[in-house]
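Hi,

Apologies if this is the wrong queue. I'm a grad student, and the batch job for FAD-binding FR-type domain-containing protein from Actibacterium pelagium produced an output file that my downstream script rejects. I'm not sure whether the problem is my script or the file. Here is the sequence I used:
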Amino acid sequence: MKILGIGLIVVALLAPLIWLPAHGQGKDVIALGSQYLGLVSLIAMAFAHLIATRWRGVEAVFGPMDQSYRVHKWLGIGAMVALLLHDTIDAEMKGLGPETLLVEAAETAGEISLYGLLILVTITIAVFIPYHLWKWTHRFIGIFFVAGFLHYLFILKPFKNSDPLGLYMTAICLVGIVAYAYTAAPRGVRPSRPYRITGVSSEGNAVAVQMMPEGKPVRYRAGQFAFFGFTGSGMAEPHPFTISKAPDDTGALRVTIAPLGDLTARLSRALAEGQPVTVEGPYGHFGRPGKTPQVWIAAGVGITPFTALAQSLAPDAAPVTMIYAFRSADEAAHLAELEAIAADKPNLTLVPWASEEKGRLDGEGVASITGKDLSGHRVLFCGPVAMRRALGLALAPFGLTARNYHYEAFEIRTGLGLRRLAIKLIDRI
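Support response: The file is valid. Your script probably expects a header line. Output copied below for reference.
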């Protein structure tokens, strides 16, 4: 994630401290701290809504979309923690004014915001709850943010809404509300490109979907992904898929979908030639072959970005070793296509790894293929998270550094990692 985006968030969160101490002179310090926590919660939620828009500038400020979404997740969790602390620590100050009906209504709005956000954030990190249910409930999160903003506007506080701090908070919250309105608006409001499916074919245990533009095509680089709304199959909610072919003059796109979850399983059965598709994007910065030798490690449907990268590999690019791990050859998507590409490109070496025959791919297996010294290589990985972490640790003794280990951790919805932490603690006992 980019330092620019993190720095912007930190400055925005600390900015109220420029004015708040002066407004709190002679007042309860603990209550003042609680009010600051309430402001922090609103600022964090506003930034979370801003990132969720996927506006073009988001990646420029906060980093590639996979990293931006991690910032989005932790902003939401941080906002919830700050809000719970704000509710727990008494924020009431004496002598600020009478308890009017408007003030009481603002207090009620604050309670609605607190409990509504608590429920929705819990659903978000409880990854066992089905994706479609989470997605449906998540659209209401902005309503509770608006309730929190109304609570802020009309609650008794040590400064006026017309003061510099009041104007600052109002501006921040309005940005968040505009961002929420944009994400909650009908799909026609968001910029997208119309496509139509021209072919659906089996690729191992996955389905390859070819599509052509019905107007101006999406301009993208190999390795990028986009959000696809398969409106013709009744699944209009955009979902991210990596584009599994290199750009060409026709504007054609291809995505390769493996039935790994509830939505993808339904999609793989419902898609058919002739159906319309909407495409938003592209996003991401994964994989740019250059002057440094590279090792590409793909597992299962993680082959999708490498298929596009292999097609676009320039003759003068540095040598690339592609290790493609799969259970058996009949389950491997695009294997024959990649073999043909490798046969035509001297700087691309394809190494299929069938786990049924060779066992699970590990650090020793990678080192045996690439050589024992990876210090001068960039390693790109796409596949299961557990395998990514295991290889990162296993390849460190062979010279692989975190700086040279590249991957996209694009997970719209993730837990807190508490299970992994618990396993580590148990292993130490």
